[in-house]
């Protein structure tokens, strides 16, 4: 057993030693990636929204595009977002360097406790899940930054500085998007930002090593994100898929764009108008893949429910009120793909 690498905590180290996927990663036949059924990226036109235009006379147009995308797809892409290319390349490079550190160095950050605010882990929740996923991830809480940055890895040496700058820039971009999304729902600009308590921001550095049998397992199975909105950066390796009109569609990388995913809290705030998008990540047998989601969220004590302005006689509240902390605990205590957390909060 030991020589086969089955005792490795991280799949990055396991992948280097196996020719076959160990049984704990193998999905039942009815639940496999089925790559022949996945539609190529170019079968659908996605909304690629030019954020530069938000500051000019065509703002109403852009707001309309955002509304359409959130109602129809639950996600959109953004370009001209103001995040410098060097910063994007920098956070990708530092992530790659982190996952290439020696196993013993990486394991200093390891934990299987989902309540820890800085931790390296694997799969989704190794304590509760029946089938594991071909992914390692470093999860960091990053707002307010000063509360967490001193727990972050200090190796590579520029990790804290570079990742902190990235987080701060991503927060600015998020706030701009929240204004636009509020407007797109017909709400005052500051409405969403004002209804999520003192705000929270987490990020994951996802690392998907090459997989000898990618048809048997997932990087991440089908899920929606439990937070408010996710700004996903991916490298040049395909792997992300979104669910659309009953089928899976590959969402292949476009350099210098972010994928903006509507999360469960936005679906609630919008009283079910905007859809939290179902998505998943598959792996491949030749190339490692990195993705870096920024998860923007309410603060734990924030009371979340449908916006009052969006409740009418014909639009009864679709969800009960809850604290984000209750939601988040429910999400992490379940399995990623077996039930939709959101449905547990429906009226
Ligand atoms: C996630 C996620 C997708 C990807 O981390 O929640 O959906 O492409 N990641 O890695
Ligand atoms: Ni996700």
UniProtKB/TrEMBL annotation:
GO molecular-function terms, A-Z: dioxygenase activity; L-ascorbic acid binding; metal ion binding
Signal peptide interval: none
Names of required cofactors: L-ascorbate
Coiled coil: none
Pfam families: 2OG-FeII_Oxy, DIOX_N
Family: Belongs to the iron/ascorbate-dependent oxidoreductase family.
PANTHER family in the record: OXOGLUTARATE/IRON-DEPENDENT DIOXYGENASE (PTHR47991)
Name listed for the protein in its UniProt record: Fe2OG dioxygenase domain-containing protein
Organism: Cucumis sativus
């Amino acid at each position: 057993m030991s020589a086969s690498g089955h005792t490795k905590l991280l799949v990055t180290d396991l992948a280097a030693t196996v020719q076959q996927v160990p049984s704990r990663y193998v999905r039942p036949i009815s639940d496999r990636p089925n790559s022949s059924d996945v539609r190529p990226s170019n079968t659908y036109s996605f909304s690629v929204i030019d954020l530069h235009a938000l500051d000019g006379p065509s703002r109403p147009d852009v707001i309309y595009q955002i509304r359409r995308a959130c109602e129809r797809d639950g996600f959109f892409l953004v370009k001209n977002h103001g995040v410098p290319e060097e910063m994007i390349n920098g956070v990708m490079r530092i992530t790659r360097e982190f996952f290439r550190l020696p196993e013993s160095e990486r394991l200093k950050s390891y934990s299987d406790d989902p309540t820890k605010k800085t931790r390296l882990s694997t799969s989704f929740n190794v304590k509760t899940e029946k089938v594991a996923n071909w992914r390692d991830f470093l999860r960091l809480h990053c707002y307010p930054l000063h509360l967490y940055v001193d727990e972050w890895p200090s190796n590579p040496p520029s990790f804290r500085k570079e990742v902190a700058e990235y987080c701060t820039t991503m927060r600015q971009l998020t706030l701009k998007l929240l204004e636009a999304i509020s407007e797109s729902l017909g709400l005052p600009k500051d409405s969403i930002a004002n209804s999520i308590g003192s705000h929270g921001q987490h990020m994951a550095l996802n690392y998907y090593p090459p997989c000898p049998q990618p048809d048997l397992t997932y990087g991440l199975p089908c899920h929606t994100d439990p937070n408010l909105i996710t700004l996903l950066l991916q490298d040049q390796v395909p792997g992300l898929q979104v669910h659309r009109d009953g089928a899976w569609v590959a969402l292949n990388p476009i350099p210098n764009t972010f994928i903006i995913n509507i999360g469960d809290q936005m679906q609630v705030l919008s009283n079910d108008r905007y859809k939290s998008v179902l998505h998943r990540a598959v792996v491949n047998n030749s190339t490692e893949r990195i993705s870096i989601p920024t998860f923007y969220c309410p603060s734990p004590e924030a009371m979340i429910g449908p916006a009052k302005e969006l409740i009418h006689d014909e639009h009864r509240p679709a969800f009960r009120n809850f604290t984000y902390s209750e939601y988040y605990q429910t999400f992490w205590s379940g399995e990623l793909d077996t039930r939709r957390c959101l449905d547990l909060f429906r009226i």
